[in-house]
Amino acid sequence: AGVEVAAVSSHRVGRLREVARRYRIPRVHTSHEALINDPEIDAVHICTGNREHFALARRAMEAGKHVVCEKPLAATLEEGRTLAGLAARAPGRVHAVNYQYRHYPMVAEARTRVRAGELGPLYLIHGRYVQDWLLWPADYNWRVDPARSGPSRAFADIGSHWCDLVEHVTGEHIVRLSARLRTVIPHRVPREAGAFEGTVAPPAGAGRMDDAGRSVAVSTEDLALVHFETDRGTAGSLVVSQVSAGHKNDLRFELNGARASLAWAQETPERLWLGRRDAPNAALTKEAAQLGAEAAALTHYPAGHPEGYPDALKNLFAAVYDRVRDPSRSPSYPTFADGLRSLELVAAVLASAGEGGRWVEVAGNVP
Amino acid sequence: AGVEVAAVSSHRVGRLREVARRYRIPRVHTSHEALINDPEIDAVHICTGNREHFALARRAMEAGKHVVCEKPLAATLEEGRTLAGLAARAPGRVHAVNYQYRHYPMVAEARTRVRAGELGPLYLIHGRYVQDWLLWPADYNWRVDPARSGPSRAFADIGSHWCDLVEHVTGEHIVRLSARLRTVIPHRVPREAGAFEGTVAPPAGAGRMDDAGRSVAVSTEDLALVHFETDRGTAGSLVVSQVSAGHKNDLRFELNGARASLAWAQETPERLWLGRRDAPNAALTKEAAQLGAEAAALTHYPAGHPEGYPDALKNLFAAVYDRVRDPSRSPSYPTFADGLRSLELVAAVLASAGEGGRWVEVAGNVP
Amino acid sequence: AGVEVAAVSSHRVGRLREVARRYRIPRVHTSHEALINDPEIDAVHICTGNREHFALARRAMEAGKHVVCEKPLAATLEEGRTLAGLAARAPGRVHAVNYQYRHYPMVAEARTRVRAGELGPLYLIHGRYVQDWLLWPADYNWRVDPARSGPSRAFADIGSHWCDLVEHVTGEHIVRLSARLRTVIPHRVPREAGAFEGTVAPPAGAGRMDDAGRSVAVSTEDLALVHFETDRGTAGSLVVSQVSAGHKNDLRFELNGARASLAWAQETPERLWLGRRDAPNAALTKEAAQLGAEAAALTHYPAGHPEGYPDALKNLFAAVYDRVRDPSRSPSYPTFADGLRSLELVAAVLASAGEGGRWVEVAGNVP
Amino acid sequence: AGVEVAAVSSHRVGRLREVARRYRIPRVHTSHEALINDPEIDAVHICTGNREHFALARRAMEAGKHVVCEKPLAATLEEGRTLAGLAARAPGRVHAVNYQYRHYPMVAEARTRVRAGELGPLYLIHGRYVQDWLLWPADYNWRVDPARSGPSRAFADIGSHWCDLVEHVTGEHIVRLSARLRTVIPHRVPREAGAFEGTVAPPAGAGRMDDAGRSVAVSTEDLALVHFETDRGTAGSLVVSQVSAGHKNDLRFELNGARASLAWAQETPERLWLGRRDAPNAALTKEAAQLGAEAAALTHYPAGHPEGYPDALKNLFAAVYDRVRDPSRSPSYPTFADGLRSLELVAAVLASAGEGGRWVEVAGNVP
Ligand SMILES: NC(=O)c1ccc[n+]([C@@H]2O[C@H](COP(=O)([O-])OP(=O)(O)OC[C@H]3O[C@@H](n4cnc5c(N)ncnc54)[C@H](O)[C@@H]3O)[C@@H](O)[C@H]2O)c1
Ligand SMILES: NC(=O)c1ccc[n+]([C@@H]2O[C@H](COP(=O)([O-])OP(=O)(O)OC[C@H]3O[C@@H](n4cnc5c(N)ncnc54)[C@H](O)[C@@H]3O)[C@@H](O)[C@H]2O)c1
Ligand SMILES: NC(=O)c1ccc[n+]([C@@H]2O[C@H](COP(=O)([O-])OP(=O)(O)OC[C@H]3O[C@@H](n4cnc5c(N)ncnc54)[C@H](O)[C@@H]3O)[C@@H](O)[C@H]2O)c1
Ligand SMILES: NC(=O)c1ccc[n+]([C@@H]2O[C@H](COP(=O)([O-])OP(=O)(O)OC[C@H]3O[C@@H](n4cnc5c(N)ncnc54)[C@H](O)[C@@H]3O)[C@@H](O)[C@H]2O)c1
Hints:
By secondary structure, chain A is of the alpha/beta class. Chain A has a domain at 102-282 and 341-361: Dihydrodipicolinate Reductase, domain 2. Helices cover 31% and strands 22% of the residues of chain A. Chain A has 10 helices and 16 strands. The first copy, chain A, has helices at 13-22, 32-37, 50-62, 77-88, 105-115, 146-149, 154-170, 293-297, 309-325, 336-354; strands spanning 7-9, 27-29, 43-46, 66-69, 95-97, 122-130, 174-182, 187-188, 216-217, 223-230, 235-241, 250-257, 261-265, 271-275, 281-285, 360-361. A 9-stranded mixed sheet of chain A has the order 15-14-13-12-6-11-10-7-16. In chain A, helix 5 (105-115) packs across helix 7 and helix 7 (154-170) crosses helix 10 (336-354). The two termini of chain A are 34 Å apart. At the A-B interface, strand 6, strand 7, strand 10, strand 11 and strand 12 of A face strand 6, strand 7, strand 10, strand 11 and strand 12 of B. One nicotinamide-adenine-dinucleotide (NAD) binds next to helix 3 of chain C.
């Protein structure tokens, strides 16, 4: 929507030129420093592995750029605090984190309805984020390695999306939690990450344990079970797994309130389930006349013309560039404060799991 | 199937005669003692409220009857131990507890497949049992009252079914758990239980809080969140609620194993979901040629002719009376040992919740 | 519900005694004449193949019995007229035909809502009845043979159920139609029908074409496509097939009216889909408080406790015996007039298909 | 993907400039002639109402441009023949028609599987394309007016998509058909079409019949019922409607073959249903490892990351521009020959309906 991808950078020069030619990107840089310091560039997107986020984001901020950083914002809570602090001192710049699931129309609609009180006070929040791309012992990805991904894998990689989404939709904040982490596949065979380039999430591994049989001990969790409580006292339960056969990117949440329930699932994103005691359950779809202003603004096609994951991403980037053009707007995208929030939850999950599931308080920037 | 309902008993004589006439039951008794001691009677079904189970079951056993007792087997763990002990000393009699969900064909099929190793070792068990019939503060039933139902409500009443089913299907036993119980509606308006006679579970209450506004403080939980671990180390998560709008009798479980997944939901009982990493997910239906012997034996109509809850009950009773006729068979129904097992889980849940969700061991008769 | 199965008859004496013993049926007859003339018998159920319906029903009526006849009422339109005529002259007796799908609670609810005008005038009726049990050339059953089943197979056997249901629910009558019949498997291997005894519909054949390879030419249709128009001018479309892989007993219909739509599917019978332009689509379930009196009366368990095909049959028989006990009631079950109606539709379908799909008028007893 | 939108044209200058600025389109023309004759332009997209397609396409072809024309290719069969003839004489140019549903990954997968014989010979093709945006009498759009849209509305506007898709997937051609057309709302209130600009399909009308109450007689059909037969003798049935409450853009088809069935629905486009007699039915999803090369090439995100309608459009345009760049490729998009094909089907439907549903042959370019 009227934004020019002005430059890309990579240390792999061949691939870089190919991408630039294919997408007609005028400027190429063979180092990220060059790109970050290019005066023609307004905004920098950081899409590297987790470990690099901190240094790249900090440099881009120091260069005065708008920054859109992939989640997690940083590899440690400490780094996250530094970045969020820097961001707070440059309120006229965009500092976004890529929690794109917020930008589905029906998620916006859920948020509108919950906040308008359609469900009444909430009693219970429950759901799951389950995948199967790490099911076989031969599946491998840099995310398995704590040195590159951080000490939590399943929770930090996907559970964090679920928590971001649920806090965003409900306006409630998780203040206490109890977590169990499990590594069900104790050894995996490392493979070259390069095999997966060009996909958003790594596709499924090619097979079962190979004969050569190099393998490494795995310390990051394959699955996470979390109980939590919000600042308004609502109880919650979340199941996270990367080893649940048959589930591809199955993020779903349900909210049970005193008046009604509401549920949404990422794999069928154009449908909002409304559960009721005294009327038939209903399935709201993306029919403009039945949506609030927030959801309608994220809707680009008529009802029955499914929009999906790329459109949620597009909506997030549109929100970012609307504010790049007009910094007087307030941010309508996830910010570095939200990125920090997520790191606090990861830290709490690790702390609780490390103590046998003890209930722990979440540190926090909750207002 | 060839069993005569020979007698009924009740203290309410008018209703008793009406039932006897309608169902052509030859013998009526105005006290349960008279029925229990009637020499024409082989087997006694105990369908009263929870509090009466113990005394009635003990007397019926003392009179040498076969006994089919509604769940829970008894109001306390101690009573349950007494009854299970008595049952162990009369192995030629039937002592069944009404966990009828086991007797759906597709549940039997799930059990067959899990035990045959189709899923591989299990990694994760998760699910829920959620209802909405106690959503409004004006909803009331004897189950709300701990003096009549016991100290746990949502977990003991329905969560116990889920655990029974999952242990039955997987052959694994829950050995440790952490539970949170919540009473989200602190006061309710008591009403006459009689209003619901003749339904299997009490239907939804008639409305919201009435004006007269008598109300009582509620101590039993509206919802329960449980994390658990089985004797084979499988992790588990269960959500139980009687205040989740839009859910009527929504019991569902999913098993994620090293090779495949499997899921079943009570409200669509003829479908078994098979989740796979390397092949499309599939929906097994009640097609005799595709079922194992156990499920086929519980199937009375061709595929596409839905059998439901009454048929599961019928299957349980058929299993009971097959053994009444031939006590040399081994029991293929839930026994008093299973009833005791369930009380042990309830006790563990109450213990854990009472200590802020601490992980506790489940006492037990696990072999 | 208080009805005694007083006698059974069969020419196969061994099987007869086994059934009588298993179900505790006091009287057995080795000929249907003896049963029909037994003065202890009030009502006769005719469950033999189609060809025998006429003679048995006539004799039972002559003996003054109540008669419940399997569908189709008779093998020819002429026979059907004779039986309906006899029935009209004995209005105090029950003459029922087994269109049991009418007796699902949600079908009754559909009828109540359509008749109350909730959909507005109807614009379009569409649906299907598709199965796969005759998919392979080696699948065989007496229904394939026109001498035993009649000249139409797929339409007469199952399409007739769909039409009965849709006329029952809408109160509209099909007055004109255009039909295409197709026999896609021109030869089949005949097998002993006896193999399937004891199932309601014959289960799937045991395999593909056998080596011996006896085969017979097939003249009855495997699939039927029908366009129709009702007495109120509503357009309709129906697809019928017994060779559609993956469909077991997949009867479904949808009604599109000026105000709303409604759909029901037999394999998920407890759900009524409500389609709307200006509100989210909804799924009505068997929640007593949301049902009309007719549906509530057919409901025996709370919402979420699925009742199925056996319960629809039970409801039909209950309607029959309510009127056996009290003939002053008006029939609330499908009558011989409905059975004749169905034969008229079969005749019209055969006539249209025989003339290349020409639109033909349906003869009729439409009031 | 590397294609520059070089120019736009419109007679409405204000809107034109706004669009050009928003999407950074360098060249603007205030007449289509100017755009068509602009030597910097390689390819022209024609997105005007149906009536203008012919003249614009012809001029663009005369100017030697590649042409992408919205469906229908032209307003009459005669015009379509002219355009297809012109296209045949310029084989090195792209002449595409916008049947974008072909370009969903799972549609490509369906085609691959059908052609590989996975279903066996087909017995039956059935489905529907139903919408509700013209349900109320106050709903209006230029499509209602035969002078602007052509003599067929529901079939030509949407039924044509269904037929294109089914012929594309099966490789079979509809050679004979019988059709019924119905106008259920005889008068409508015309409104300014301009109100809907910027949406792909017109959104739902604003309300019911207004008070002013201007209304026009409607001659184009609201619904169409079609029976057909293909060149390989497969039977077919299609239901088309723009007045079916609760359906937004509900295009679905099912294929029943001698070995298996397959079904796809546009509103849940990432799922391909596989129906089987001897194995559980399955739901293939967009998992790259399970897809053929054609579907994999249309897949840009991992399984579980839903791609939708915009992505199908994108895939069609990518196929167009791949061939613009390299005209030696054979077309992998719908061509003007396909556009003509569709007009032949429309003509056959109108002819059959005009003669009371008589079976008519489809004229044809079937090879
Ligand atoms: N928002 C989401 O839902 C979502 C989804 C997937 C991935 N992610 C995040 O995106 C990030 C990348 O994940 P991925 O799976 O794409 O990993 P990946 O390893 O497939 O891709 C990372 C890319 O970064 C490149 N790179 C590394 N250092 C670079 C540098 N200094 N300059 C330029 N390029 C450099 C690598 O060559 C590689 O191509 C991670 O932080 C991950 O958490 C987020
Ligand atoms: N297996 C299941 O899924 C399931 C479902 C529902 C209820 N239950 C169990 O069934 C029991 C009854 O529950 P309910 O909801 O039907 O309760 P209810 O209060 O509706 O019914 C209990 C009945 O027992 C009668 N009764 C009490 N004392 C009696 C006596 N001494 N002799 C004869 N009759 C006596 C009462 O008159 C009443 O009709 C409970 O233990 C409950 O947990 C089990
Ligand atoms: N309402 C429905 O949905 C439905 C479903 C299935 C079958 N039917 C109808 O039921 C009838 C039977 O079908 P089926 O599939 O069960 O056939 P089937 O061949 O399996 O059973 C017919 C039975 O009738 C017995 N029989 C034949 N002549 C008899 C006689 N004179 N006295 C006593 N018994 C006799 C046979 O021994 C056999 O057991 C058919 O008319 C069929 O259309 C209706
Ligand atoms: N492929 C599909 O699924 C699909 C979906 C929707 C519409 N369509 C087709 O797209 C076409 C447009 O339909 P619509 O619903 O968008 O109609 P519309 O009336 O909303 O839009 C047509 C646009 O064309 C403009 N226009 C007219 N003449 C022009 C000219 N000479 N030069 C430049 N612009 C001109 C009008 O100003 C208007 O903005 C129709 O042919 C329709 O059948 C196809």
